[in-house]
Amino acid sequence: MSDFRPILSSLHNHTTYCDGKQSPKEMIEAALSFGITDFGLSAHSRAPFDPAYSVKDERAYIQEVRALKAAYAGRLNVYVGTEVDLLAPPAYPDAYEYTVASTHYVEKNETIYSIDGPVESLVRCLDEGFNGDPAALSAAYFQNVIACVRTGADILGHFDLIKKRAAGRIDFSADYYVEPALDALRFAAKSGIVIEVNYGGVLKAGLDQPYPGLPLLAELKRLGGRVTVSTDCHDAAFIGFGLREGRRLLKDLGFARVCQFADGRFIDVPL
Ligand SMILES: [Zn+2]
Ligand SMILES: [Zn+2]
User: Fold this and answer.
1) In this predicted structure, what is the pLDDT of residue 5?
2) Can you tell me whether residue 105 is helix, strand or coil?
3) What's the gap in Å between 22 CA and the centre of ligand 2?
4) Which of 75, 122, 149, 172 has the most C-beta neighbours closer than 10 Å?
5) pTM beyond 0.85, yes or no
6) How far is the CA of 173 from the centre of ligand 1 (A)?
7) Residue 135, pLDDT above cutoff 80
């Protein structure tokens, strides 16, 4: 069913202002070619402890995307967004038209470990920070996810990102993992935050399922959670990746609606 329509908004995208490959303009041009109607850029909020990964010049980023928003008005709705890490608040929170709240790090004993970077970092987090205890790390990770929801962000980013680097070190079917994951999922669903079905791990890490994985998505459907689809795009060659697949997956799972951003707000689109 490759003819299934893609969702036409895309709010989770990166540029050379953080760890993406292209300029904002190049990403916007690619979005326009794909047929996206509402396109947001979401630079990583500035993390002083991880400068290579996060926004390099937040003020210039905001100014440039605002100028592009004006330049493309009438052809494509462009939005100034940010992907806020829990441990790295943005310097100009009021400048953004929407926020994605994400957990990329876990802090333990005053050390911040990336769980999104190289696998060595995840291993160090587990072994050094959590004494090799996968249950303690899983619990800490999902506590951060709950804290992301509490920030009041519009979108909850890559719900179970921890699975990206932890295969073979965390048993994702064990109660010690499933229970805190479900606690966080219930909390998120009840809050009304829009939870993204994120294809970044499928595209970049070879995962066979988006974030959240299928069992969690099935539970999210049961809970009545609000969902959208995100590419988490870092390369214009893959603009729109997952927007069609994600919409179809949600339909297959029995979701009745998907949230699509249109003219600056989420609308519920029937599937
Ligand atoms: Zn992220
Ligand atoms: Zn991202």
Assistant:
1) 87
2) strand
3) 14
4) 122
5) yes
6) 23
7) yes
